[in-house]
Amino acid sequence: MYPFFKNTFDFITAFILIVILFPILLIISIIIKLTSRGPIIFLQKRLGINGSIFNIYKFRTMFHDSPDLRNPDGTTFNSPKDFRVTKFGKFLRETSLDELPQLINIIRFEMSFVGPRPELAESLETHTEYEYKRLLIKPGITGLSQVQGRNMIDIRQRRIIDVNYQEKYNFTLDLKIIFKTIFLIVSQKTIYTKK
Description:
Helix content: 40-55%
Distance between the termini: 42 Å
Radius of gyration: 16 Å
Number of helices: 6
Order of helices and strands: HEEHHEEHHH
Number of strands: 4
Strand content: 5-15%
Number of domains: 1
Largest sheet: 2 strands, antiparallel
């Protein structure tokens, strides 16, 4: 019964949050538009449930037409000194406010509040048979691998943690992940890749 409850909770909560947070979403949108050239929303192809492809929504944090930089493992590059990130974009990333548009992804049943973080669409071919298990559930805005290391651990470790979550997720675990996510956002830990 929990998967049904989780989907229902996700949809209702996301809808309520969009209504409540609308003024904040509007203010952020205006600031992005006034402080840098380019679209307000950043779209990127990501892996969804069962390997499906969807567009993830984020507030744009980088300058328009910035180069696509990757880490050695193929994940997106992130650094506190990333020259591609605007001043306001850095604030959005550090507070995770850039993730708020993903409430739309939840409304569209493409994502959940808690689940494996969706990887880039092209990463499907790099998944092993075991790692593919992480794709048997919807990806999340936050997840077990995010609260156990986020960008401080490599992609293979993250996928193992994601599979571990997929095999045992439940209400108590999801609640713990949500509360720990809030703590990590406030404490500013594990935002950037360990160098």
